[in-house]
Each structure stands twice: as structure tokens, then as C-alpha cells.
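Hey, can you fold this one?
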Amino acid sequence: MAVRVQAEDFDLGAELDALRAGRTEIGALVSFTGLVRDHAGPSTISSMELEHYPGMTEKALAAIEAEACERWELQASLIIHRHGVLAPGEQIMMVATASRHRQAAFEAAVFLMDYLKSRAPFWKKEATDQGAQWVDARETDEDALARWKV
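Sure. Predicted structure:
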């Protein structure tokens, strides 16, 4: 189980290989990689800047990862989230979950993604040809997170 918040890019294949190295009890490995995207709209995104509070962010991500491990039987998990200025097409984050069976791995990955999209303590600012603006939370992200309430 691991959480990393970093400015540097990551190698998805190397991260997945490391997560499952020597782990023959793993039957399913699920990963999701988020990319900075340019919205099809009235303005073009030239970059996205992600800010966070070191220490607080890692603690919050570790807590949600621990909750995923309580809900599902996971053999391993990984959350990597980048910060700093990123260009469209760059990797912004990844989640990987490993379990004996695919359902637990898939559900845990979706749970972690829903949390990261709506509650992770990152502040995002998009720079466009129209100027810079902070990104607000979306109602659809909150709706997705609500399905996990116990």
C-alpha cells in the first residue's frame, strides 16, 4: 500500500511491475491513469497547475487508501498524484489496485478514483487563451462519490 504526491512524471508500466513483483497471490491488477485534457470549448487549455499542502495531502490520500483496504480484500494498492504545472496530455495521476479477484480490484479502484476526483485536497487552476481560472467541483463527481456512503 503506497501513496505518493510528486512533481515528477511516472512510468505506468514500471509502477505496475513493481506493485506486483513477486506477488503470485494476485489474480487481478486494475489501474487507471488520469491525463490533463484540453476541453472542447470556447477556450484552449495551455496548462493546469495543481497546488496542495504537503503532509496534509498525503495523510488524506493514505486515509482513503486505508478505507479501500477495509472495504475490499486488496493485496496491494498505489496512488500517485502529481502537482505543479502540467500540459495537456501529461499524466496527472494513477491508481492501481491488486486483489485475488477482479471484482474487488475494480470496485476499489473506482472508489479511489471517485474520492480523488471530488475530495482529494488539490487545487487546480487552468491556464487558457482567455486567462487563468480555478476549477470548481462538478455535481457529477459528488454524485459518483455518494454511491459509496455507508
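The helical segments are 12-20, 56-71, 102-118, 139-146. Let me know if you want another pass with a different chain boundary.
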